[in-house]
From TrEMBL:
It comes from the Bacteria. It comes from Coprococcus intestinihominis. Transmembrane segments: none annotated. InterPro entries: DNA_rSAM_put, Endo/Exo/Phosphatase_dom_1, rSAM, rSAM_sf, RuvA_2-like. This is DNA modification/repair radical SAM protein.
């Protein structure tokens, strides 16, 4: 890219844009706000594009840290105070200059501003507030802005900032209080939850005010989000999803993000540097998160203390279905919407189309395919006017084997990196255990596997 600013500012940009790549919380704006005739930029509901560079940065946002000069010593963080790394700090005007310059060149659609804790939480939050205030009032920027709330900062600063931005997030960092005590002693869980509760309560108040008063100023109209690091500590998937479910219920989170831990620091409490990040596990957590948010599942349905981790070979919905064959087959002409959602191969859109279409007549499997139903998955779990798609044995082992034969579309980074796949051995257990039958014992003895 051409050099737009002086070398000093470009060097800061290089350091602080690279430092921001570990923050995964870039999403669409979720708001629809126009600027009138005097400002620059809009925030459109379908707005921020889901476009990511090779190292995970969302290239449609100017995604930077205000500073990577941190006073905390979190074991897992590349910016911890004990690390010998390049440090840089933007001034509020420098962030404004960069944002406006990139926006006018059509490189970005908004700003994602995070920060390490510089000096103390309140000082850092004040810098973030001053930056956003200048963007809105001096530079008249009306585009999408997402900032991080700094735990431990003065609540008044968080509230003032919330009236200027579209989304705020406060990272939970690690799923459990035990993990935080071990790896981030400066961040007690109570301190992290306090700004989440403040933001949630103020959003609720603001919605009532906006409904009553035409000119009321909205507070964080795109909602709040959070992020958890996965794989740095030993929590099970069941613990992680239980925490996420609680966050959605108690704090009305818009999104919970899961960030596969990238080994950047040598420490006996962490996975060794060079260990591949658990990208496939991260992918399964996002799939389960989607099931909880939109498909009516509970964490306790997907996992349990007896089965605390997701099956890496099957997506969570298929894995649940083959373990609950007593709930199937589902008749598409009579099943309610939420029953249809539990069928592998049916999504929100296809379930809605089925519910609409069946009012006007009978449905055939050919019709389901046109509606977007993935029959190669759904065929084992549905009937259509009392008929099955093709004869098969309603058996957990048979269905599991056939589902494993289907090539699942995994995210590009999982496929490219190979994630943490390894050579299988005879002692691997991916939660596909079946009761050993007499026929199995006979075949083992005779070699007819």
């Amino acid at each position: 890219m051409e050099t737009i600013w002086d070398s000093h500012l470009n060097e800061k940009l290089r350091i602080l844009a690279d430092a921001a790549k570990y923050d995964a919380a870039c999403t669409s704006s979720g708001v629809d706000r126009k600027n009138g005739s005097m400002g620059t930029g809009n925030a459109v509901a379908c707005g921020i594009c889901h476009s990511f560079s090779a190292d995970g940065r969302c290239i449609s946002l100017l995604k930077i840290l205000l500073t990577n000069d941190c006073c905390y010593d979190c074991v897992y963080c590349v910016n911890r105070v004990g690390n010998d790394t390049e440090r840089a700090t933007f001034s509020p005007d420098e962030v404004c200059t960069l944002t406006m310059g990139f926006y006018r060149r059509n490189y970005i659609e908004g700003l994602f501003l995070s920060s390490a804790v510089y000096r103390n939480p309140s000082y850092t939050m004040e810098l973030i507030y001053e930056t956003v205030l200048r963007l809105r009032t001096v530079y008249h920027f009306h585009g999408y802005i997402h900032v991080k709330a700094i735990p431990g900062a003065d609540p008044q600063l968080i509230q003032q900032t919330g009236f200027l931005v579209d989304r705020m997030s406060c990272n939970l960092e690690l799923p459990t209080a035990e993990g935080l005590r071990s790896l981030a002693p400066n961040k007690p869980r109570r301190q992290l939850l306090k700004p989440m509760r403040q933001i949630q309560q103020q959003i609720t108040v603001s919605k009532h005010e906006v409904a009553l008063y035409r000119h009321a100023q909205p507070f964080v109209p795109a909602g709040q989000s959070t992020q958890m690091i996965i794989g740095a500590t030993g929590e099970s998937d069941y613990q992680i999803m239980s925490v996420s479910e609680a966050l959605y219920g108690r704090f009305k989170m818009k999104r919970v993000f899961y960030s596969a831990y990238v080994g950047v620091n040598e420490d006996s409490r962490l996975p060794a540097v060079g260990t591949l990040p658990p990208l496939l596990r991260e992918h399964r957590l996002y799939q389960a998160d989607w099931l909880i948010r939109f498909y009516g599942f509970k964490a306790a349905e997907l996992l349990s203390k007896r089965q605390p981790n997701f099956n890496l070979l099957l997506d969570p919905k298929c894995d649940w279905a083959v373990r609950h064959l007593e709930a199937f087959p589902v008749e598409v002409m009579t099943a309610d919407y939420y029953q249809l959602l539990r069928v592998p191969g049916l999504g929100v859109n296809s379930a809605r189309r089925i519910c609409r279409a069946r009012r006007y007549g009978g449905l055939r499997f050919e019709d389901l395919k046109k509606m977007g139903v993935v029959l190669k998955r759904a065929m084992y779990f549905i009937t259509c006017q009392g008929r099955v798609y093709m004869p098969f044995r309603m058996d957990e082992r048979f269905i599991t084997t056939n589902l494993l034969g289907l090539k699942e579309r995994l995210p590009e980074n999982v496929v490219r990196s190979g994630d943490t796949f390894r050579q299988l051995n005879l002692f691997d257990d991916y939660h596909l255990q079946m009761p050993v039958e007499q026929e199995d014992k006979r075949q083992v003895l005779t070699g007819q596997l």
